[in-house]
Amino acid sequence: GGSGRPRRRHSFSRAHEDHAVMDEKEAEEVDHLFHTMHSHAMRKPVEVEQKAYFGVEGTNYARPDSMAADEVLKHLTKRNKMVADMSPKIIIVLLGLGVSLLVNAILALTAVIENWKIKLVASMLDDSGDDAWVSVWGVWAAVGVVCALVGSFFVFVAPAVRSSGIPIVLAFLNGAQLPSVRNRFGKMVDPFDVTTLLAKAASTVLTVASGLFLGPEGPLIHMGAIMGRRIVAWLQRLTGERANKVLSAITRGRVKPNTERWFPVDMEQRRDFVAIGAGAAISGAFSAPLAGVLFVVEEAASKITLSLLELSFIACASAFFLTWSIKDSTFIGDGHVKFGKPASSFCSLYNWKDGFSFLVLAIIGGLVGAGFNSIVVRLNKWRQRAVNPFPARQILEVFVLVVVSCTVAVVIPAMWACTESKPQLMMQGGVGCLQEEHWTQLSPALASHADAVKFYESSGTCNTPSLSAREAEWLATNVDATDHEKLIYVARNMSEIPYITFQNEHHGACGAASFNEMATLFLKGGVKAVTMLLTRGAPHIFSLPALFIFFVVYTLLAAYTAGTTLASGLFIPHLLIGGSLGRLLGLLDLWLITETCVDNHGVDPANMSVLEWTLSGYRESLVSCVVPDPGTYAMIGAAAVMAGSGRITVFLAVVMLELT
Questions:
Q1: Which of 22, 199, 210, 231 has its CA 20 to 30 A from that of 569?
Q2: pLDDT tens, 507-561?
């Protein structure tokens, strides 16, 4: 649950690996020196400390430059050198594909359980209406309790399953030697062994599907790192006698050193494999290969080389290719964090005032992210004293948290009023920045002004709407029949649009022609809820009260959930927290500009037709006033909260770019 990451150490941070060649007194001196220097300000050792300080040398971040190494290289043939150069790349491709396959399997299993829950609840509400909410609570809570308790069991099997695992990965990559930990069954379990991998995979699927306010992305990064470490462990089995035989064969018996560092890849690259595995997990989960590479460069690796950059790109590209190949399948695609991009010509509406608004939102979001961290840290300190030493209390905490979370997720939607799915949700305050599947519900085509005039002149045929005298006047005044460049939506008859749909809304007990805002946010699943928050072109699909209540409730429960005895990530929670905050501020900005600038041209925005929206001049007034889109604010808010919590910059910017 922590947000900070270990600072990079110098070569002496590897002291603990060299204790085997020190006597006990020397080891004590080194430990005391390192503790003194790292507990206070970094300083140069004084003369009496220099023997201990310079007596330890770490070689894990550099290839060995020695006569033995030169001797090996000298006797390698051209073919052997090519094989030695290609071996890491082949292994890296397999690592990327393997990590992506694991990531997609976990997301698919999670999506299957979540979709089953959502469909079950929807069918109950469709059959019984408002009377079914009590039964919905029972089903939602029962499934959540079972999934969460079974998921928490795997923490007792492998303690490193708890939380996201990213601090463990970053600590290892920055020089810390992570010891094996005794689980509740008396077995020593390493944070990077197969037991931890399998237990974390199972716990992630169950806890995310339980309905708790968490996500799978952090654990996926840990699992990718474990797979990178396991590949190195497999390679290490080729060392010793077997590797000596191989090297003796390829050098025709002329060189027989210990080849631990030379076949088939350098063993000092084991940290690089862990970092690359983590980056491949990001690429596979988010379909974001550049973000995966940048995670390795900016967040994970302690020493950046061209070789590491090249191998990271190969692994992330391989992971992305596999995800791209299979993500469109029915159940796998539902679990992916990927958001649609509006495809109309009315989206790029910004000015310097928006930049100021985004800056204010970024500051507020950063403070929210930092405050979130503060709550998590304080809760974890309390939990360390009062809960974690007692297994029964850990189980009880998970049980109570699931019941509370499921109760909140059902009771608030049950108390919330329905929102009519009327076309005006896309038109009121909206300039038409819509995805194709949205704007085609209002219009059969996006046409030039000249073509639009021809379309309306055929009024009364081919389902073309008939124009009133006022609408005909608007057409003659506001639409240029000679302009073949400027675009406009041609209108459908309002009788053809009984209601609209956004694909990811939750109808609750409202029926097909309405939806429940709170059910959409609480009961639809994290990815789908974020998709709705980031929806552009429909400013009023969420109201100010709904966004405010969701923001407060979700932030508090997500902060408490972060450190419990479960595998949990914070990426989706941060998207939801920041998205609701950003959309809330975007609605306030939209209201302010609408009240001070926009001319309604005599139409009622809450009840207007598509013809009135496109022909009256109302939409053009929105464009000229550069009204903000709350969906854009939601994306900025999500990025701001994540940056404030994770203290990440370039990597985060690229993630948001590739996600949207």
A1: 231
A2: 888 888 899 999 999 998 888 899 899 988 889 999 999 999 999 999 999 999 9
CA 635 to chain centre: 13
| DSSP SS3 for 130 | helix
The answer to whether residue 585 scores a pLDDT higher than 70 is yes
Lowest mean pLDDT among 290-299, 332-341, 372-381, 577-586: 332-341
pLDDT tens digit sequence for 20-62? 444 566 666 655 655 554 444 445 566 666 666 555 544 444 4
75 and 46 in a common domain: no
Classify burial at 392, counting beta carbons within 10 Å of its beta carbon; exposed 0-12, middle 13-18, buried 19 or more: exposed
Count Cβ atoms below 10 Å from residue 514 Cβ, excluding itself.
Answer: 17
153 Cβ contact partners less than 8 Å away, ≥ 6 residues apart: none
Alpha helix (H) ranges present in 327-468? Answer: 330-333, 352-386, 391-415, 424-427, 436-439, 449-457
Per the rule left: phi > 0, alpha: psi between -120 and 50, beta: everything else, 37 is: alpha
Give the pLDDT band of residue 463 (cuts 50, 70, 90).
low
Number of separate domains in the chain: 4
Q: Are 321 and 195 in a shared domain?
A: yes
pTM: 0.83
Which amino acid, residue 95? L
Q: Cα 298–300–301 angle (5° rounding)?
A: 90
Which pair of structure tokens corresponds to residue 71? 């001797």
Say what angle helices 306-326 and 78-128 make with each other, to 10 degrees.
40
DSSP class of 181: E
Residues 454 and 508 in one domain: no
Backbone angles phi, psi at 448, to 5 degrees: -70, 165
Do 184 and 391 contact (CB within 8 A), yes or no? yes
Q: Which residues pair with 489 in a beta bridge?
A: 446
Helices and strands counted in the chain (H then E): 27, 6
* 8 A C-beta contact, residue 110 and residue 250: no
Residues 232 and 187 in one domain: yes
Task: Tell me which of 102-116, 231-245, 388-402, 524-538 is least confident.
Answer: 231-245
Query: Where does 416-559 show beta strands of DSSP type E?
Result: 419-420, 446-448, 487-489, 514-515
Compute φ and ψ for 249, nearest 5 degrees: -70, -45
pLDDT above 90 as % of the chain: 35
The token pair that represents 242 in the structure block: 């077997």
**Cα angle vertex 482, ends 478, 484, to 5°?**
100
Domain-embedded: residue 383? no
Asked whether the beta carbons of 150 and 208 are under 8 A apart, the reply is: no
Are 30 and 179 members of one domain? no
| C-alpha dihedral sign at 612, 614, 619, 621 | negative
Q: Are residues 18 and 82 in the same domain?
A: no
Residue type, 605: P
Task: In whole angstroms, give the CA distance from residue 229 to residue 243.
Answer: 19
Residues 467, 456: contact at Cβ < 8 Å? yes
Rounded Cα distance between 98 and 89, Å, is 14
Question: Do 150 and 285 fall into the same domain?
Answer: yes
Question: Phi, psi (5° rounding) for residue 640?
Answer: -65, -45
> Alpha-carbon distance 179 to 32, whole Å?
20
Task: Please provide the average confidence, as pLDDT, over all residues in the chain.
Answer: 81
Contact 19, 29 (CB under 8 A): no
Q: What is the mean pLDDT of residues 144-165?
A: 92
* Model confidence pLDDT, tens digit, residues 231-284: 877 766 655 455 555 555 554 554 444 444 444 444 456 788 899 999 999 999
